[in-house]
Amino acid sequence: MVPLLDVKATLYADGGSRGNPGPAASGAVLYAEDGEVLEKVGTFLGVTTNNVAEWTGLLEGLKAALARGVDEISVRMDSELVVRQLSGAYRVKHPGLIPLHAQAKALLRKFGRTDVQHVRREQNKAADAVVNEVLDANR
Predict the structure, then answer these.
(1) In 3-state terms, what secondary structure has residue 56?
(2) Arithmetic mean of pLDDT, 9-38
(3) Across-strand partners of 17?
(4) pLDDT tens across 27-50, in order?
(5) Which homologous superfamily is 8-137 in?
(6) What predicted TM-score, i.e. pTM, was given to this entire model?
(7) CA 110 to CA 63: how far, in whole Å?
(8) Closest CA relative to residue 134, chosen from 39, 15, 48
(9) Which residues on neighbouring strands pair with residue 44, listed in sequence order?
C-alpha cells in the first residue's frame, strides 16, 4: 500500500455546452490548502451534452490531482446531477454517462479521503471561466 502523503486540495470542476447537445468543453481548477492554484485544465469536447462535459471536467480534475500526489480531495461542482449520481442519491441511467460515472468512482477510490459537494454556480466561477475560455477559443 502506498503511504499517504497528507496532500490536501480542493477541486472545482465544471462543464458546459452551447446548445444541448452543442459545442462543449470541460474545465477544472485545483487549489492547494492555502488557496494557491495548482493547476487549471480544460478540454474542447466537440459536440456533446452538458452532462458529458460536467463529468469530463470532474475526471480531468481528479486525474490532475492524482498526478500531483493529492491524497485528500474536496470536490466542488455546481452540477447537482453529477454530485447526486456520485453519492448514489440518483441512479445513472443514460448509457453515455455510465462509463464516466464508473471512471470517476474508480478515481475517487484512489484518494485517502474524499468529500464531494454541490455548490452554487457563483462559487464555481473559476472552473466555469476555464470552460468558457476553451469554448471561445474553439469557435
Answers:
(1) helix
(2) 97
(3) 24
(4) 999 999 999 999 999 999 999 999
(5) Ribonuclease H-like superfamily/Ribonuclease H (3.30.420.10)
(6) 0.95
(7) 10
(8) 15
(9) 25
